Amino acid sequence: MNGRPGEALAASERSQALMRPIVEANPQVIDYKEQLAVSYNMAGDLARQLGRIDAAGDFAVKARDLMEALQRADPTSTRPSEALSKALNNLGRYHAAKGRRAGALTAYRRSIEVKLAKPSDVPKASTTSLATGPSLSRWRAARPKASVRRSPPRRWPACAAR
Fold this sequence. Notes:
It is a single chain. By secondary structure, this protein is an all-alpha fold. The protein has a single domain (5-161), classed as Serine Threonine Protein Phosphatase 5, Tetratricopeptide repeat. 63% of the residues lie in helices and 2% in strands. It is built from six helices and two strands; from the N terminus they run αααααββα. The chain has a two-stranded antiparallel sheet with strand order 1-2. β1 and β2 form a beta hairpin. α1 (5-25) runs antiparallel to α2 and α2 runs parallel beside α4 (81-97). The radius of gyration is 18 Å and the shape is flat.
């Protein structure tokens, strides 16, 4: 982040320390868990850049465990797939850096399986998801049609790019 991965990792670890009690106090809020897992994934990338391989592995395991728990809680949801796939990929990198070829291959294969899984591969239990509320198909049916004009993307002033 801005060419200063050490500072970014320290900031990420501080934010995780703030987020963990919130996740524990609100276990039903999926977004909190998902954001914590994304933070673990980013911290793992930063730790790997800094050569802290063991720390990168620890972050990958934490992210994987959080996202797998979300998938077990609601197997019909595809929300955790991206973060879980990233965590498994990071775990594969960790095993590869440690010279554990079998562990790396297992993690990489599982990452690909998670990434390529289609919603049709997931058993359908109901039209309501614990993670997201009404199913995506019901949301799509209820949303306005394409004739609704969307606002253009925001353009930030040049001074904010510094």
